[in-house]
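Entry 14. Ran structure prediction on the chain below.
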Amino acid sequence: MKDQSLSILSSALATGSLTDPEIRARTAGTPAHRILPEANVIKIGGQSFIDRGRTAVFPLLEELKRNLPHHKMIIGTGAGTRARHAYSVGVDLGMPTGVLSVLGTFVSMQNARMLHYLLADQGIPFIEPIQFAQLPLYLAERQAVLFFGMPPYTFWQPNPRVGRLPPNRTDTGTWLVSETFGARSMIYIKDEDGLYTADPKKDKHAKQIPDITVSELRAMNLPDLVIEHSVLDMMEHAENRRSVQIINGLVEGNLTRALNGEKVGTIIRAD
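Output, structure tokens:
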């Protein structure tokens, strides 16, 4: 503790309490190192996309393959309708939030494994959280990796403000990967042209929103959102990933445009 080589902050951390708000605030002075600044995190929706089957998935995978020479991609998967079935049975049986999170995790994993087999001819690996230390090597070798989007909180999932469904699901899990690695982008692939003022499947007067901030979105108080509320909460405190892009993967070329930095779909930004 008396080593003079320790910085003032290091000494404070070594001798002080990690719950001290002043000490915690001082840790923000050192900028976070961006580990994979050239990588793009892509989340392929479960119910909105993968559940549509080959008519939706196969053309998207071909577009992914065409982009392999040009972009590094970390691809996460949603859970979809099968997870909703598992949640409904779990809630009926009285399962707590942490157990419901486990159920949703394995459905998201099934979707990732299916895409892994469909991309086997490209040598794109499927990785689990324990393998994330090897992720940079896989990207350097194959330009892309697949993982399941559900964050590995499982039993450690926090309880939601309302109800019992896990609040941090696959949208949140993929965003956390983008934030942690300091990735170039966070792209959500859905079956709609981004965020709307209402559900366009139910309301023909719904208008698409091309660009919006988190505070503006909250002020609208929309009854339903195209991404999880947890993403908006976390994005306000982000160091690296302070914007996300939502695109329609059913439109050929949209993914390529988004990877190239074009403003397609909807962009949601922190204030």
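The domain at 36-269 is CATH 3.40.1160.10 (Carbamate kinase). Will compare against last week's run tomorrow.
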